Amino acid sequence: MSPKVQPVRGTQDILPELAKKFRYIYDVSYATAQNYGCEEIHTPIFEFSEVFHRTLGETSDVVSKETYTFTDRGGDSLTLRPEGTAGVARALISNGLQQLLPLKLFYSGPMFRYERPQKGRYRQFHQMGIEMLGYDSPESDAECIALGHQILTALGLSGKFQLEMNTLGDNESRTKHRQMLYEYLRDFKDQLSADSQIRLEKNPLRILDSKDVNDQKIVAGAPSLQSCLNDNSKEFFEKLQNSLKLLGIEFILNNNLVRGLDYYTHTVFEFTTTHLGAQSAILSGGRYDGLIEQMGGNSTPSVGWAAGIERLALLLADEQLPKISKRIAVICADDQAKEKCFKLTQDLRLQNLCAENISGGGNLGKKFKKADKWGANWVIIIGESELQNQTLTVKDLSTGQQQSLSQIDAIRLIQNP
Ligand code: HAM
Q: Which of 96, 208, 226, 242 has the fewest beta carbons closer than 10 A?
């Protein structure tokens, strides 16, 4: 029996057209991140399950419903990474990088979540992200957000996104809110959805994020986090807002933004779009001051974000992609010129030019058609007379101008027309 030939639900092949967009997004992001002092890191695609399970929150959707977890042949429970932050935090501790703090790290690669697939939502998707580790000031949050903003702008997405922000406050404020929320929701326990009834005992904050309509009605009257914020948390958030204003970065305050992962403290933010239907978040993150300590490292206040590459690619216009400006087709107009054409094509490539040898059967007209299909904007023709005169016929397809030149002069002309 032949194997199944379709891809697994929620996965997709990144075919050349889409791959071009991925490459462009990675290149622009990495170049921009380097200007902010980021260095690149790659962590494994799978980790011991506890790396994710404890840190992202047992009650979070990601952990409770979406992880790809399996026991390997050695009996260890492993999980395909659903996101990058926990792996980077683990790597910081396991490699003794805490001595090098503060650090700004950039990463990219596939992530895995067993979500219901739809436009912009996949089970294997790709993220690029940054983590600013060992940075505790509100200005760091502004810097982190500014990097995301600059990348989206550099990708030509201005006008297609907005920045939403909220604060979850520090530990003291969060504990107070959690207690007040619990006391409020406890009175509605029987009316809450089954999921939220479980969350009530484990993490009532997650109920605020419930998609259940009845839960949402109950939540509307719940004590707000804002009313529980202590002075320290308010001041931190105000300073962040002032820093963003100083940088000219616009934002919207959204008290309902709580994010789906448990490790956040203080700032949370999302760059959202109205161009992708339900999957509005394109780049999101926040501060996670307690995560690294929780994983067994030293206290390391940190802030970061990740962006969904598929979602950015959906927003990216084709015209935005850089094109190879010079594509040279070498056309062999006589069988005797075959070797010369083969060698010339290689010489052009060694000069860092994009060249293709159009040989094989067919008349000149057919070969020109092939060159056109390949996207040539320059053509070099070698036939009998060129061989005799040791010249090349060079044609600039954008102007239609044709000249007879030596190889050196031809390359010079193409490089500097
Ligand atoms: P997240 O919001 O879960 O945060 O994911 C970040 C981005 O990944 C989202 O804004 C979205 O663009 C994309 N994304 C998430 N799930 C999918 C999916 N199923 N299909 C396609 N794209 C998706 C995090 O992952 C945190 N680690 C971000 C962070 C870094 N926080 C601090 N540092």
A: 96
